[in-house]
Amino acid sequence: MRARTSFLQFHGMRFHGIRNGIHPLVPGCLALLLWIPTAACGGGQQVRGERLPVTRAVQAMYEELPGTVITRSHRVLDGELRITVAGSDSAAAVSAIEAAFAAADSVDHLVGLHRETSEVLAINAAAGREPVRVSPWTETIVAASLDWARRTQGAFDPTVAPLLDVWGFGRGAGATPDSAHVAEAMRRVGWRKVRHDPAESTVFLTEPGMELDLRAAARGFALDRSVDAMQQAGAIGGVADIDGDQRFFGPGIGTRGDLWPVSVPDPYSPGRAYARLEVPSGGVSTSSPYARVVEVDEVQYGHVLDPRTGYPTRGLASVTVYAPDALTSDILSTAMLVLGQGVECRLAEKWPQLKLLYVVEAETGEPSRVCTTRGMRQYVKEIEPPVRPDLEYDE
Predict the structure, then answer these.
(1) Phi/psi at 283 (nearest 5 deg)?
(2) How confident is the model over 358-383, as pLDDT tens digits?
């Protein structure tokens, strides 16, 4: 059966039956209670009204940066790049923003899937025939993607495009594919079939019909390059954000040292926040299968697919990652959604060195379990576990 693809959370549905009550953090994550205010612990109540919108809640804090602070937005990589930067004066801040936009545009022209200049499209067109020489930036994204594909044993895979198409998240129409279609797409997926030759700066897809898709890494890389450009332009500090993937630099505005406040979006209602972090300069990315869904026969399928099975991920509602750079946080937020399936809060035990905060899928109408790794706990200041809403489909 054909289905519609929704780019908004639960498009075409209504929320019903959100219950009161706060769910305690599961065993192994209890250290987080040290940072949760009394109102959000047992005995408190789940917020029923509007929480602060994620962007607006932190934007006022960013205006406290030293110097002249300016905010601008720009369309790039199929998203909105929003930059808040502090300069010594207005001219310096504007110059930094313009440099950042130019850097992000350069990344888009190299790896975007709708650009005539795209080196990724050239790689895909030459699949099974010949290697393609690429620029240093494209090569860096490819190398990082393949490195993390190896380290996660294929949970992250930059060749997943054929699966996205068959599920309707790429060029195809939204539908639930049968096992034969999934198996056919899987034959054209596999990071081990990608040949990267650093000596020649070439990338080769060894099987005809394979496609490279760097979107799960490109935004993070673009944020890093935007920050580099702003620093070279003399900016004091700031934040670059592409639809929730963030990169911070400069002195910060936290109460303890050079820290940056971060509102973590509720996976079931992305305009609201369920947690607040304070992190050093670096990258923060949040991934959720609910960011984009295909609905078929009143069943929702999230856009994050497991490249090892060909099917949508199950078990985690969102993953937030902090890393020293946005390229790493961008990649890992996707990879950990895949690796967390069936592992739930034990994911924190498997990857304790990583800085992860994540939401385990709850039953309808129930608060979710929120888990963290040891590396992330020092940055968590508040948590109000999100509630998975009851859903009623519009006729």
Answers:
(1) -115, 145
(2) 999 988 888 899 999 999 999 999 99
